[in-house]
Amino acid sequence: MKVVSGEEMKNIDKMAIDKYKIPGVVLMENAGLKVVEEICKSLEKYRNKVITIICGAGNNGGDGFVVARHLKNMGIPINLYLLGNPANIKGDAKINYDIISKLNIEIGLLTTINILKKFSEHVNRSSIIIDAIFGTGLSRPVDGYIKQVIDIINTSNNEVISIDIPSGISADDGSVCGGAIKASKTVVFHLPKYGNIYYPGKDYCGNVLIKDIGIPKEVEEQFGLKGNLITPKYIKNKLKKRNGDTHKGTYGKGYIIAGSVGMTGAAMLTCKGALRSGIGILRLAISQRLNSILESSLTEVITVPLSETKTGTFSIADIEKIIKTMEDSNVVGIGPGCGKSREIEDLIRNILERTSIPIVIDADGLNALARRKEILSEIKSPCVMTPHMGEMARLTDLDIEYIKKNKIQVISEFAKKVNCVVVLKDARTMVVNPQGQVFINTTGNPGMASAGSGDVLTGIITGLIGQGLSTFEAAVCGVYIHGKAGDFAAQKLSEYSLNASDIVNEIGSVFKELLL
Ligand SMILES: NC(=O)C1=CN([C@@H]2O[C@H](COP(=O)(O)OP(=O)(O)OC[C@H]3O[C@@H](n4cnc5c(N)ncnc54)[C@H](O)[C@@H]3O)[C@@H](O)[C@H]2O)[C@@H](O)CC1
Ligand SMILES: [K+]
């Protein structure tokens, strides 16, 4: 499913109206009716049926007028408020405002401070509040009087249904612009907006319900929209049921370079992530001192013990052994827990110069690239990089705040420049390919923000590439599976108690569900 910015949605609406000749007022009517449907579902549980609707002067407010008219027709008692100047209401919203004005409905003008007391009483005496103040047209931070209105709604403890997006949330990045409505549910039209998906916007939306309002699918297809939500359907399409007539070689040979003294767990978790994702054969290059630990704990892995530096990190001295033992692999995963040293940088440079095997680079692998940026242009392999915000900042020399504000642009430019698939790990992890396609993941939870979680993801993506998925497909499937496994683990243990090993333990349940 596509995800759009406010501007993209406006263009889709405009094309549906101008080129496909669907009158805007029809779309608005459909939008209002979809909200009424949701109100009716909620209203069943209240004895007091009074509903308060607050409309802005734009088209979001227009949707609110449609809702008011239908509720009135249904005999449901309403309070209707306009937060804005009636003289500013135009187009389809004006048509609906004019209809409302002819009906026996009182419209409270929320333009003077005196009315706030009455408004507050109405809000507190209502069952449900309908937020039709601002939608995708929010153009500046809310302040002063409007903020007071939002605060009254938020402190009322009522059920709040937002139309399209909670008023005050940016449709483009989910940020709170001065203040925002905290909704119980949000009825979203046609496609989710980034603000319905990204945090903190998502937390303000409550339950997100995406509703068709009659815009033909082919309209959006004409815009080359870059944003996609990762859906189970996409993942199911990529994961094939296994044929009976196969052997371990069918499912790939992976090669992991991870861990160092003090970071044994990183190697372990990466390997377990790959094994649970179905890789046929897995080798682990590991420093000599750690070999016996890993041999005893990773029963299924073939270890390649290597010489090490004084501090127990990989040494460049054994580069030929690495290249030789790596040769027949069809995927390499490098970086988790490798430590920061000049030798790691040299090791990565050598590997990237001399191999064209698909490679997943994470953690200290990325830190090495950030310190030696000239290596970035030498990557010959199909490659996935899995930075978190801090690593992304180091790789691009941009500050984290700037990246957060311009996520899609920054990652897309970087992915194109280095010709790699980039997985930006965040509360909403995003996968971008050099062609600029963006896939946003919605599985996962805050319990996964703990040490080792990223190592498991590197393992999963490595495991999937080993089994024949492209780097992009493996990254998209990998982030979904990883998040879903985290969600299953959190259901069992709580977000507080979730550890990276618990994610590993739930990978199997995710595959079971996907392959049903
Ligand atoms: N034909 C269409 O375009 C359709 C639009 N729809 C609705 O229309 C919405 C978008 O409508 P609009 O583009 O008119 O925009 P909005 O209704 O979201 O808001 C625009 C109005 O709010 C004012 N405004 C923006 N930020 C403000 C702030 N911080 N403080 C005070 N005033 C502020 C603007 O000056 C303008 O008057 C969608 O979210 C959706 O709910 C739906 O009815 C479906 C059809
Ligand atoms: K709204």
TrEMBL record:
One GO-annotated biological process of the protein: nicotinamide nucleotide metabolic process
Key word Isomerase present: yes
Superkingdom in the source lineage: Bacteria
Family named by the database record: Belongs to the NnrE/AIBP family.
Its job: Catalyzes the epimerization of the S- and R-forms of NAD(P)HX, a damaged form of NAD(P)H that is a result of enzymatic or heat-dependent hydration. This is a prerequisite for the S-specific NAD(P)H-hydrate dehydratase to allow the repair of both epimers of NAD(P)HX. Bifunctional enzyme that catalyzes the epimerization of the S- and R-forms of NAD(P)HX and the dehydration of the S-form of NAD(P)HX at the expense of ADP, which is converted to AMP. This allows the repair of both epimers of NAD(P)HX, a damaged form of NAD(P)H that is a result of enzymatic or heat-dependent hydration.
Record-linked NCBIfam families: yjeF_cterm, yjeF_nterm
Official protein name in the record: Bifunctional NAD(P)H-hydrate repair enzyme
Organism of derivation: Anaeromicrobium sediminis
Upper taxonomic lineage: Bacteria, Bacillati, Bacillota, Clostridia, Peptostreptococcales
